[in-house]
């Protein structure tokens, strides 16, 4: 009788080939999907001139700065991701295109200027949007619409998103944030006597989908180690919940905190966590070297 337990598990070849794909290509594919769905089903982009300006600004800035700083033009996938994200998320008054120029320049230049020990601390798009909201709250906002009750749209986005973050091994970051968001907002809704569904509805919107699948999982700015990554993302969710509570209680917060609490929470917690990790790194490496010499 054949030993079924000894039968090897067949892994689809496309899944195996996915291991060798640069994560940036997977992320850019996901953001492209979100943008296409947002435009063709809900006309949320607001004009292809925005897309053109944002992409040109990001790619040209990346090419020029990388050539100047590193002596060569680097892969422009990161610039492409930033351009798509800014196109979808930024909503300026009267559709002014200059904000996409400012946003693109801030996003890409932050990688070359705001650095510590040869690492940039902020996710480029998160930094640009947070900075613009703080600097010009009366001139622009961010996309916050939900997909509503369209189950198919949410199912497509979340299916592709979960597959991609699983492929690049950051699924635990996305799920930890989503779980923390649901728990903290459920507690907040109960404490304030508010209905639950409106509090968790933002997860069905493109802003949060980009946030949970791209910004908080950015390989360049997340800390190392699964445990540390989960701790940081829970802290991001906690700070976001605190900002939302402050808005409910009419705390004198800048408008940006009320408009995009998740973005501001990440812009505060993420760089601090990355800075602390980078600051400890040389000490930890030296201790490991000393331990190796002793053995």
Secondary structure blueprint with pairings:
Elements (H helix, E strand, L loop, with lengths): L12 H6 L4 H20 L5 H23 L6 H13 E3 L5 H16 L1 E2 L2 E2 L3 H12 L4 E3 L8 H17 L3 H22 L3 H5 L5 H10 L10 H23 L6 H5 L1 H34 L1
Antiparallel strand pairs: 1-4, 2-3
Strand order of the largest sheet: 1-4
Proportion of beta-strand residues:
under 5%
Overall 3D shape: globular
Can you write the helix and strand succession as a string?
Answer: HHHHEHEEHEHHHHHHH
Question: In CATH terms, what is the architecture?
Answer: Orthogonal Bundle
Commentary on this structure:
The chain is mainly α and 295 residues long. It has a single domain, classed as Ammonium transporter fold (Orthogonal Bundle). The protein is built from 13 helices and 4 strands. A hairpin with a 2-residue loop joins β2 and β3. The longest helix has 34 residues.
Short structural description:
With 295 residues, this protein is mainly α. It has helices at 13-18, 23-42, 48-70, 77-89, 98-113, 124-135, 151-167, 171-192, 196-200, 206-215, 226-248, 255-259, 261-294; strands at 90-92, 115-116, 119-120, 140-142. The chain is built from 13 helices and four strands.
């Amino acid at each position: 009788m054949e030993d079924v337990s000894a039968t090897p598990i067949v892994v689809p070849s496309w899944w195996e080939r996915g291991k060798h794909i640069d994560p940036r290509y997977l992320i850019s594919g996901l953001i492209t999907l979100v943008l296409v769905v947002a435009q063709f089903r809900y006309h949320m982009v607001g004009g292809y001139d925005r897309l053109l300006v944002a992409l040109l600004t990001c790619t040209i800035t990346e090419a020029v700065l990388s050539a100047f700083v590193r002596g060569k033009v680097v892969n422009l996938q990161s610039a492409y991701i930033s351009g798509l994200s800014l196109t979808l998320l930024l909503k300026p008054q009267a559709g002014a295109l200059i904000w996409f120029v400012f946003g693109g320049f801030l996003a890409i230049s932050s990688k070359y200027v705001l650095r510590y020990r040869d690492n940039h601390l902020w996710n480029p798009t998160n930094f640009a949007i947070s900075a613009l909201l703080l600097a010009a709250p009366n001139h622009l906002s961010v996309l916050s619409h939900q997909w509503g009750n369209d189950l198919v749209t949410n199912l497509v986005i979340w299916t592709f998103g979960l597959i991609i973050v699983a492929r690049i091994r950051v699924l635990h970051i996305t799920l930890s944030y989503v779980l923390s968001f649901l728990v903290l907002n459920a507690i907040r809704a109960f404490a304030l006597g508010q209905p639950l569904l409106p509090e968790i509805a933002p997860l069905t919107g493109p802003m949060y989908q980009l946030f949970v699948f791209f910004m908080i999982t950015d390989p360049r700015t997340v800390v190392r180690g699964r445990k540390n990554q989960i701790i940081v993302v829970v802290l991001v969710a906690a700070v976001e919940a605190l900002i939302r509570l402050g808005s409910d209680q009419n705390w004198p917060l800048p408008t940006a905190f009320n408009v995009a609490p998740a973005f501001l929470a990440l812009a505060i917690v993420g760089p601090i966590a990355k800075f602390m990790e980078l600051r400890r790194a040389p000490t930890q490496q030296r201790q490991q070297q000393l331990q190796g010499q002793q053995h």
